[in-house]
Amino acid sequence: MNLRNQLILVGIFLLNISIYAQDATRTLTGTVTDTDGFELIGVNIIITGTSKGTTTDYDGNYELTVNTGDVIQFSYTGYLSQDVTISNQTVVDITLSADAEILEEVVVVGYGSRKKSDITGATARVSTEELTAFPVLDAAQALQGRAAGVVVQSNNGGEPGAPINIKIRGNTSISANSSPLIVVDGFVGATMPQANDIASMEVLKDASATAIYGSRGSNGVVLVTTKKGKSGKLTVELNSTYAVQNTANKLDLLNANEFAAYQNQIRANQGNSTPYPQGAADTDWQDLIYQSGNTQNHQLSFSGGSDKVNFYASGNYFDQTGIVVNSGFERSTFLTNVDAQVTDKFKMGINLFGSRGAKNGVTTQSDGSVTVGGDDVISLAMRFAPDKPVFNEDGSFTTNDAVGDEVDNPFAVATARVDETTTNNFRANFYASYDLMKNLTFKTTFGLSSRNETQGVYQPSSLEITASAVNGRARVINENRKTILSENYLTYNTDLGNGSLTLLGGYSYQKNDSEVFAAAGTGFLSDAFSYYALGTATGLLQPGSGLSKVEILSQFGRVNYDYNNKYLFTATVRRDGASNFAANEKYAIFPSAAFGWKISNEDFLIDNPTISSLKLRLSYGATGNPAISPYQSLARFASLYASREGQTVFAITPDQPANPNLKWETSYQSNFGIDLGLIDNRINLSFDYYNIDTKDLILGNNGIPEYFGNQNDQILTNLGEINNRGFEISLNTKNIVRGDFRWSTDFNLSANKNEVAALINDADIFGNAAPSYFSHDRSYILRVGEEVGLFWGYDYAGVYQGGDLPSGTQTLAGGVAGDPLFVDTDGNGEITEADRTTIGNPNPDFSFGFTNSFTYKNFDLNIFFQGSQGGDIFNMTNVQLNNGDANTTRDYVNSAWTSSNTDTNTPRVGNNSNREISSRFVEDGSYIRLKNVALGFNMPSSVTDKLNIGSLRLSVSAQNLLTFTNYSGLDPEVNYFGASGNNSASSNVVQGFDFGNYPTVKSVNFSLNLKF
Amino acid sequence: MKYLKYLFLALGMSIVGCSDLIEEPVGLLAPDGFFKTTTDIQTAVDGAYTHAINEKFWGRKLSIALMLRSDMVDLASNETRRVEMNEFTTLASNGMLSEFWPKTYQGIAAANQAIAGAENVDASEAIKNPVTAQAYFIRAFYYFHLVRQFGAVPYIDAPITDADAAAAISKTSAADVYANIIADLEYAKQWLPNTQPSRAIPAKSAASAYLALVHLTMGDYQNAFDEAKEVIDNKATYDLALEADFQTLFNANLIDGSKEPIFALDYNNVEAPDNAYDQIAPMTGIRGDDRNSGGGWSVAVPALAVYDTWPAGDYRRAVSLDEQASIDGNVVEYTNFIVSGHQFAKNQPYIAKYTRFPGPFARGNARATSHNYSMLRYAEVLLIAAEAAVELGNNASATTYMNEVRARARAGGSWLDTAPSAVPADITGTVTVADVLEERRFEFAFECKRWYDIARRRIGGEVFSANGLEGAKPEFSADDYLLPLPGDEIERNTNLTQNPGY
Fold this sequence. Notes:
CATH class of the largest domain in chain B: Mainly Alpha
Strand content of chain A: over 45%
Oligomer: heterodimer
CATH architecture of the domain at 106-232 in chain A: Beta Complex
Helix content of chain A: under 10%
Helix content of chain B: 40-55%
Largest interface: A-B, 102 and 104 residues
Number of helices of chain A: 13
CATH topology of the largest domain in chain B: Serine Threonine Protein Phosphatase 5, Tetratricopeptide repeat
Largest sheet of chain A: 22 strands, antiparallel, barrel
CATH architecture of the largest domain in chain B: Alpha Horseshoe
Number of domains of chain B: 3
């Protein structure tokens, strides 16, 4: 019976009733509970055949005007719906029972959806509640600790607007991007919507789940579905939060007098009798650059719809004032979803997204290149001499001139430098689907997105070192990216024998364009112009512009066969052709296959009272990482500026040869998983073991001799291999469900072990994660058989006490008592490059998240711990602070070796090492962090009814309140990328280095949720 | 409704279209078909010149290494890579070495590209060879630096087409590298014009002068003398002369008008990316100096003996060294330079050649000066001729050329309005090799010539003894006349052998 006939029947029925039950309009009330007696909130109650309806409040109560004979439907996700025909009752209390069979959770997969119990791949779902537990700028942040196998890290601590790095099951690459593919409402490579607009987020982890995305699947896929409107009355929802933030930690640095004494001690130790010329000031630079920050986030959404058309529209405003002066982020976001069932065969809809963000940046994490001393405020505040005032007598900013490199002061850099980034995002995605015949549906989507980002930087002439000599330096960079995506696919369902078969086949075309331009100049009449007066520059700097295009042409298909509701088979394949692939390797094919066995549906278990569900999953497949940038495989000249007879002219030099055989990187992944549900699924356990062999990794470094003379000294080759293997456990238990009280626990743990399996000639690859002014070129290593990114340096062996050297150790040249000792690895009697060795491993053994939720009557409490165990941190901050040419910590001065304090593991001040990279600075970075604790209160309906509002929720939460760690630095969640800066390659291999990143913040947050 | 499904099917299809997925880069330089005219050859030659001005080559890494290895410039820094250069403890991983090695070869690769590209240019020899000859010259310039630093090196003289073969080559012997340098310079001499619009573009005189220096370095004194003399005899044709005022040679505002430079590097007047600018001036400048927006970095500082052994009346001393400076608004003598309080400040006269008149484009600390550094100037041709004449027993010529240089030195000049003096007096009697070397030490002080003189004359044992200007350098040995090849380069091509002692 189709919908239309149903409606007619209901109509006739109602008509008949109305004849016999005159004048029966009245108010019906009642409570909806589940089988445990717990009130259900937000149950949809609708008078069938009408658009009249309501939802239950926080106490499970409802109130509805009805007529005798109305049929009322109670429906709630995950529960069996019930229809009740009204005779003469005024109170109807309903008990809904959960039903895994009919209304089971549906999991979104690529190009479709499956019942959760029919999934053969490894996936994880993050709920809306988890995503919105505390305010985040980027919904990706809310993933941290919530899903097994997913590691989330801000790329710069608590910096407002800092990008968020997600990694699923470790790094599958060395030089290419390791971030997962983000798919929002079917749009591949979309911008993440804001957390309050997300209905569900699925993380696809194994090849069975990701191979449908082919050459872009090997880093995992995050599928995001935004909220849609529901038929029924208009719902207006307001979410408002306000948070106060502070830096979690500061360093205990020397004051001016202590600093002068320290400098004099260094000079004495170095045989220099010139006293340190102490200045008159006593400045706490950390106090000057840190402030109390705040965040506010307001969202207003409207949703609803008629039988045929649903809509959801939301607007969001986010504003953050950072904890470092002059840093902040502001963003407005809009999202609209409209879906229309045009005929019973034809459905269409559109998804519109727009956002505008404005970031006010301060420089942190400097790579050290801006005038030899670097220019980032965080490390400058640690290093800068405390006996200097902020301003000279003439009102100009002071510079550091007595010790170390001459640098601008941190307050000057933080307040005078302008660094603004505005980002506009727009996306429109249209779809239409048509049932061509019974069980055969054609769906087409057409979308476009654009992202326009403009960054303006102005270094004013008041910055003595950076820009005074050139009278200010300004730069504007604009990048405009456009994507067009068209996807067309057919889905066919049929019963076949004892099972059901689903076939999917389609093709896709995507085109990404990116245009950039940059202009810069020096020499401005006034600093007040900021970067808006490039036309008045007296010195022109090199402008730049560029265009890159990528076209991807794909075919994909999937077969699902479910036999007897016991045996599940899934096979997928995708063929990707891409313009950025090299000439001889334009097309790539990625297949996968999976098998699932619902053991609990076998006769011997089906009636088992304890085991409510049990499923085994096995999968194997290949996925790719495109890894090749546009035009990267083509031969190239580089252009250079040359000077000729006083005129600037253009010159060329060989940059790289052609590389027509360059290929994408491929991950071969096997996955074994078990899903177990016990006692009516009150205990749910999932376990997955995976093994990922990533081959054909693109490597360039060390590849070819420098005497080839290419400006780009890397011929890229597909020679690397990495293995990642590990396991993931998710445990979800409903510990207590009794009356008004509920306690549930979510626990997830992931352990990933990676190993470099092959490199070019299996030769070690070294890299530098120190700022350039450290003057080191090796601080981490990639070595076959080892994990990625081990620390590389000297093995510290304590303090030399004078006299005979302890066996097997040496000092650096000219060592005397108090200087550091290092293990003379090669036993040649001196400390040389050859004595360096692996001194630490930044890869954690495992990481975990642990959430406890308690609900009692109108109150709920959520406590979320997140942690990481076993990863080392290289404390580069201490390397700099122990070097003598900067301020330092009291701890260092107090523990340093002196002739009267010899029983110490810390060398003397002013010792003979120069920012040595040694095991002395390697620390255990394990931590457990109280990521979030939140207390919520739902206003009772007795109050909300009086106020004439639907529901009201108030909550207070705190983030990063407690951290348990032995790490001595500011924060164990470190993320410094070193002299090469933060790029896709460095974020894969540079791990565990701490230097000058924006501090993680402690935050206290107040929220309000109001529904009409 | 039926038409609708066809409509959106068509919509989907139309977007997909047919793409051949071939990349058509816009705005990128593809080598195919690049070389069409002599202008294109010149563009590649300009690329070859430009690598030389980079911070990784003359801008700092090579020039400072050459200074520190000599006895004329000591180190005020504890940076490992510099200590290694100064103390002769250089490791194959040295951080200066690892920068100027690739930069030198990038210059060579650009020259090779120009020479190969010239084959595709359809123009007569008379039109295109004078341009291509610049590429031969600059290739010789780079290899001459390499062979003096490393001895035998991988020799590449064409764009790489077979990467696997090129990655496995062995070193070419120093003798063969020298032979190739001479061949390149002879070609350059044949085709380059007598004069060029700028001293940063090599003329015939540059090829001849470099031939003279190469022959001198090889100990081929007859050829050295002949080449040098040819330049001297044709100085009018080549538009060459000694500059009257020695200070002018180190004044970035005036140097481009001088007739003394024979080959110079043209420093950009823009803040080019990739560190393509000069940092010699800040490296040699005085800490706390009120000049140059923040003074210098006090890294490369001559030992006090350099000043003390330099005859007081020699105008070149006054031009080459700063005896006093203004620090914090007070004029202080060098004996009190540490008043700046900096840990590496020294009570010694500092190098003045580059910080005094850095030109209009200098930025903070005198980074990015406008000095178009002379790689070889006319005075050197005179002293090459003098040294070769001594070796050939031609004392008359040696005396003439030496005294020409010394006469200019005692003439005084604009700096502090120095009047002519008697120092240095004309040399009389028999000129010795030591006399010429000493003259070169003063004349070319801090111009990165001294290390090469020490190495070619093998006088390290003497100048780095306890009697040397910087005192005993116990780590110095004969192996230090050559640097190690970068360790990672040997890892990349295991057929390359390391120099002895490393």
